[in-house]
Specification:
The protein has 158 residues and is an alpha+beta fold. The chain has a domain at 3-112: 3-Layer(aba) Sandwich (Aminopeptidase). Helix content is 23%, strand content 35%. It contains six helices and seven strands, in the order βαααβββααβαββ. A seven-stranded mixed beta sheet has the order 1-2-3-4-5-7-6, covered by helices on one side. Strand 2 (45-52) and strand 3 (55-63) form a beta hairpin. The longest helix has 9 residues, at 125-133. It starts with 5 loop residues before the first strand and ends with a strand. The model has no long low-confidence stretch (mean pLDDT 89).
Length: 158
């Protein structure tokens, strides 16, 4: 897989139609929100599109709002939510490459932040494995989510 065509882009309207067409199987959809459900960028919400050759293949949101305080006491932390890869694009390494590009994105576009945190369901082993492979660490903190215990992971941006 040639990764040199994969990039992270701030959301803009040209991606709306492709993101609205994203599909996930039920066992994955239970753990995340579909892009079309959470696209509205409000204060402290920064939608990010994982793009391959100008085509959206994945999506997530970085939060800089008060919501972050539920996951980290670090004033320089951002919260990552709603990561998804369109079902037809899964298995091609896009989630891993997108997450490997995350530190550079934060350094370039959010230089005042030095940590990205997220919560992952304790049953979502594929996601836990992905996050650990790209440098996220289990903080030992736990939260109760709608589907049970969530593990809080952190990626330190240096």
């Amino acid at each position: 897989m040639a990764y040199n065509q994969v990039s992270l882009q701030r959301y803009n309207d040209k991606y709306q139609e492709a993101l609205a067409a994203f599909q996930l199987p039920g066992e994955q959809a239970q753990f995340t929100a579909m892009p079309a459900e959470v696209l509205d960028a409000g204060p402290g919400r920064h939608p990010i599109v994982i793009v391959n050759d100008e085509e959206p293949v994945g999506f997530f949101i970085l939060h800089t709002s008060e919501r972050v305080k539920d996951y980290s006491e670090n004033p320089g932390a951002m919260l990552l939510t709603a990561l998804s890869i369109n079902h037809v694009e899964q298995g091609k390494g896009y989630a891993k490459k997108g997450m490997l590009l995350l530190q550079a994105l934060v350094k370039e576009q959010f230089p005042e932040y030095d940590e990205v945190v997220l919560a992952v369901n304790h049953k979502n082993l594929p996601a836990q494995n992905l996050y650990e492979k790209v440098g996220f660490q289990d903080t030992g903190r736990r939260r109760e989510g709608k589907l049970g215990e969530q593990l809080v992971y952190a990626l330190y941006v240096s």
